[in-house]
Write a structure and sequence with these properties.
The chain contains twelve helices and twelve strands. The protein is α/β, with parallel strands linked by helices. It folds into two domains: 181 residues, NAD(P)-binding Rossmann-like Domain (Rossmann fold, 3-Layer(aba) Sandwich), CATH 3.40.50; 104 residues, Alpha-Beta Complex (UDP-galactose 4-epimerase, domain 1). The strands form three sheets. Strands 3-2-1-4-5-6-10 form a seven-stranded parallel sheet, sandwiched between helices. A three-stranded mixed sheet has the order 7-9-11. The model has no long low-confidence stretch (mean pLDDT 96).
Length: 298
């Protein structure tokens, strides 16, 4: 399959490109810099220059492809409205190009904020609808195109897609521990996060592209619920630091912007995803990655 990938040199995207190429697919990656383009060429992928604000390039990539994987996001936590607007516009551009084609469109989403008080499941529709919602309501907007003949598929990633080299939420929590000299968790630390290894997430994206039906919600969660206190304890052990509770009112001051999430319940089941795709995570767990020092290198 000829596959167009946005975010092709990002944390999940680079692993996804490798997964696609190993499976025999042809890949064109969106690249906004020379270094990103060089990385793709070195792997044997084609390059389309552009970024999330270049909707003409995104339309061109989608039009030439037999399937689209949209993983790019600005992740501008200082200006979330800009990130949300770009995400919605990208999804709309891709959906419009693919309309009437029955081609697959796998797009990044998340399990964060879907429900509270229990692990979310694939049956839970996203509550985020409309351009002012988180991620610009992109999941709901992408599913609007199912009725127009697009095989839209949500890849809902765990809040931590972990592994050596990760610079996401867990890396920021580790950095806060190093800065403050204590490894913290929020409140009593009983809330849990889902987690998935990067390579397992990439394999899920490829399987979804190949066979998931239109309107499918896939949960990229290798572990349904890792208590945040256990995460803090693993970080404390890795850095030889005491483990302490951080008052919820101080969480953002202590952890930075990730503090608004670290106290949330973000557990999620992937039972239906596993049954549908035959997907079985094989990578290390989050606590195994932390114990092995994946986040404590120089």
């Amino acid at each position: 399959m000829r596959v167009f990938v946005t975010g092709a040199t990002g944390w999940i995207g680079s692993a996804t490109v490798d997964e696609l190429l190993r499976a025999g697919h042809q890949v064109t990656g969106l690249a906004r810099s020379d270094s990103s383009a060089d990385q793709l060429v070195a792997k044997g992928a084609a390059v389309l220059r552009g970024d999330l604000d270049d909707l003409d390039a995104i339309r061109k990539g989608a039009d030439a492809a037999e399937g689209v994987i949209h993983l790019a996001n600005k992740h501008d936590w200082a200006n979330p409205a800009d990130s949300n607007a770009a995400e919605r516009a990208s999804v709309e551009a891709i959906g419009e190009v693919l309309s009437g084609s029955d081609r697959p469109f796998v797009f990044a989403s998340g399990v964060a904020g879907l429900v509270q008080g229990r692990p979310s499941t694939e049956d839970d529709a996203s509550p985020f609808v409309g351009p002012d919602a988180p991620r610009g309501g992109a999941e709901a907007r992408a599913f609007d195109f199912v009725g127009d003949g697009v095989r839209s598929i949500a890849a809902r990633f765990a809040p931590t897609v972990h592994g050596t080299g990760d610079h996401g939420f867990i890396a920021r929590i580790v950095a806060a521990a190093q800065q403050h000299g204590v490894s913290g968790y929020v409140g009593d630390g009983s809330n849990s996060w889902a987690a998935v290894h990067r390579f397992d997430a990439a394999r899920l994206v490829r399987l979804g592209l190949e066979s998931a039906p239109a309107g499918t919600r896939l949960h990229a969660t290798g572990e349904a619920a890792v208590p945040t206190k256990a995460i803090a304890e693993a970080i404390g052990a890795g850095l030889n630091l005491p483990v302490v509770s951080i008052d919820p009112s101080d969480a953002v001051d202590h952890f930075g912007f990730v503090g608004q999430f670290f106290g949330m319940e973000m557990s999620a089941s992937s039972n239906r995803t596993r049954k549908l795709l035959g997907w079985q995570p094989t990578g290390p767990t989050l606590l195994e990655d932390l114990a092995a020092g994946a986040y404590f290198g120089s």
